[in-house]
Please model this.
Amino acid sequence: RLRNFFQPRSPDYKRLDGLLAPDFTEKSCLSRYQTVLYRKSSPHKPSSYLVAKLRSYEELHKRCGPHTRSYSISMEQIKSGQINSSSECNYVVWVAFCGLGNRILSITSAFLYALLTNRVLLINQEPEMEDLFCEPFSRTSWILPKDFPFKDQFDSFEQDYAYSYGNMLKNNTINASMESLPSYLHLYLSHDYDHHDKLFFCDQDQTLLRKIPWLIMKSNVYFLPSLFLISSFEEELNKLFPDKETVFHHLGRYLFHPSNQVWGQITGYYKKYLAKADERIGIQLRVFDNKTSSSQFMDQILACTLKEKLLPEVDMSKTIPAPSENQRSKAVLITSLIPDYFEKLNDMYLKHPTLSGEMVSVYQPSHEEEQHSDNNLHNMKAWAEIYLLSLTDVLVTSAWSTFGYVAQGLGGSRPWILYKISDGETPDPPCGRALSMEPCYHAPPIYDCKAKTEVDTATLVPHLKHCEDISWGLKLF
Ligand code: GDP
Model:
């Protein structure tokens, strides 16, 4: 049984209320139009301003994207290092090495930055990212061409990279009053960046950066909430996103469509295991330290899901009765690097009847044991699982995990977050409901650019709060 199949459809039904451009062929990217058959339709509509902005971005990308005349002219300026007035296009190039969740969130941040600054976003796609996503913009490409001049230097571009904007500020080798500015700058916006790198989030610095045609950004974080601290973006952001909780929800659904290959895995799994259930519950399990035992985490998972009545209790004194015809069914989708939680939960529901009389089936698509973000097939499985989680009706996620943030944002749900076990202490309560479906920004700036002092940036503008799972993190709500 697929969702929404018999629901009345508006003309914009498949295009997510105009979010997606009309000029794609369905075959080239099946997930773009077929996801609506599997996912609840979103109660959050994109603003007409956002829809218009995306359409004009697509035109810009077509004009300036790889293999266009404008791109060739812009290439000349990056090669010469000089700003050439004949170029009409400006770019932001995204580079990173990290887990898939982090990549998706930082690409989304770079895309919103591109929208706000009229730049074209190009992503450096290493082999491990191939065939994960469809091209998001029609009749052009967002993949950085292979002959891009700095490609072989991306690995060495770390925090102390001499040509990064932050380092140049530290060494006083760049300022807004300089007569000749370079045609490109590197921006280091990764989790371990320092004070000077984070001056990127100041209005004064944006004034300078606006003049630089090529910005090469290394980022593995969801820095998007910090764009709301830059006052010159404020008016535009308010028009684009009247509802601040939906920024990733809309941009994520706009940008990230599983390739046909990954979509085949997703739909095959969904139809086989999840489609028939009356309700689907996704439980995303991620442990970041090796001190937490799987039995301690399992206790926390049960304490949360049973207390919040997401899963029914079992009668341990009885063995399972045969399922009756009209028994209500729940499918539980577990995602985890290890099989332990699936095995315990599956065992519990196979061996004992539920007190509610519901039938519970437990599934886990893979257990990869370890993170291998440099492996393409591993990333495909991760992407398929993130997407499957986003198709569930109820979501439980693990604190600190961007894997879970992406699933909640695409699905449009406020998950129950399993709080982090720290110093061996199981948290009490074991979980809590997220206040907003936005992802958390783990490494926000703590600097007031106007007052030039440290500040709690969550207090500077409305719509920003500290995260439920990371006290110093920042999120939109
Ligand atoms: P985060 O580290 O939890 O914030 O999420 P990331 O996605 O950025 O990085 C973790 C990576 O580990 C994922 O991208 C996968 O490669 C792998 N991984 C972690 N949990 C799972 C899981 O439940 N299923 C699969 N298939 N891979 C996982």
Notes: The chain is about 30% helix and 15% strand.
